[in-house]
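User: Show me a protein chain along with its predicted structure.
Assistant: Here is one chain, sequence first, then structure tokens.
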Amino acid sequence: MGKALILDAVRTPRGRGKAGKGSLSAIHPQELLAQTLDAVVQRAGVAAAAVDDVVVGSVSQVGEQGANIARNAVLAAGWPQEVSGVSLNRFCGSGLQAIAMAAYGAASGFQQLIVAGGVESMSRVPMGSDGGGQDGNNTRLRERVFQIPQGISADLIATREGFTRAELDAFAVDSHRKATIAVEQGRFTRALVPVVDPATGQVVLTRDELVRPDTSLAGLAKLAPSFVELGKLPVTPDGRTLDQIALAQFPDTSRIDHLHTAGNSSPLTDGAAAVLIGSEEFARAHGIRPRAVIKSIATIGSDPVLMLTAPAPVSRKALQQAGMQVGDIDLWEINEAFAAVVLETTRSLGVDPERVNVNGGAIALGHPLGATGAMLLGTVVDELERRDLATGLVTMCIGGGQGIAVIVERV
């Protein structure tokens, strides 16, 4: 088997994902993605016609993000009609899964050049717009496995792990601190694609707009927990609440302490990303020096009620595939869907916190669902180069109880 090489990676700035308020909310998601497609091939110096396929992750595939957004973004970019596109959904892991599929094609030799990435416009296509919820509204499935909302799962993890509200808030403050430094020092500059309004030609966003440099423990402490009332909601014919359903799976836990707030959870976000994946043969033939090689890719299923604990076991699986240990990884990107997810993963694996999310994460920067995985992969490659380090691991929790991890090594 050959190797899957990362030739380049770009992303839009992350915009606030609220209609009429975020800087990207006026941009159709197809156009948002199309701008990253153009940028990644232009920066790598390859022709769009050479691309074998475009693989795109998007979670809410309905309305403006429906109808195979990958293919429509190819057309919106004005690429040759021969370039194909496919869209996929692995919930929050969609962008990283798109990269995995591209890597499979390049490493197997069936494809030579693939663009992989993701897009999510949460201002224009709000989370849950497809109407499927967590389980497709299958009442028979709920009799077997009742998948509670992720926020309640995050609170359940925090409760069982003994994390305090103060610890979760402190993690959030640190995310904003690190992201502020990264923005001020221009650490994201190489990857960023300024977003242009296709109707006017005006640049609408050049930098991530969700980072709050003034975030403080005192400020976060004033925020009310987000999932208290949701946990009290009766959802079964016999009147059981979501909290009761969750606790029934864990007799050793007597209550759920609702600790996650809007301040220590990831905010609604708009954004798109594209990563150029090539085979060794393509890179050699075109004189392209790859930036990194994909060492391993792993996915795993986990408890569908606790739901968000898969990053640790899937990281172990990826490390085993690569013949590596936790200490062999120089930089970790663990998606900050909720503060407790990163704290639990870091503790479970025994990772040095100084190696985790060194430029902040989704709590500060935002989490545009289908795009985040591709953004994180580009971020870790950029930072490995900046620090002259070798290896990085990106991992994400996924709704329904799944995890994904990708290990990269600089070339």
